[in-house]
Write a structure and sequence with these properties.
109 residues; mainly beta; 1 helix; 9% helix; globular
Length: 109
Amino acid sequence: MEVTGKITKVLEKQSGVSKADKEWTKLSFVLETNEAYNNLYCFEVFGTEKVEQFEKYNKVGQEVKVDFNVSTNEWNGKYFTSLQAWRIFKAEENKPSEVVEDSGDNLPF
């Protein structure tokens, strides 16, 4: 899935150790779109390298395009859904739209 909007908030990094005794780091950020409804998203960036890349190239107020996956996990009968960002890049402003010319010859034969 993909969405474009403005980064409005970057939350504090979180880190810990998994049951498998491996260290993990994640960072959440909030994105707001120009849509009338459902215009607020909170994404997670998981992994030390990805968190460092996010912090290096992204700031509050920046327009970005985010490719993400929706993930739901169950724990003790409760369900938790997260939006996991896997690619974040600057939104291209003023990019000319692709023009498809119609010759008017749309006949199937």
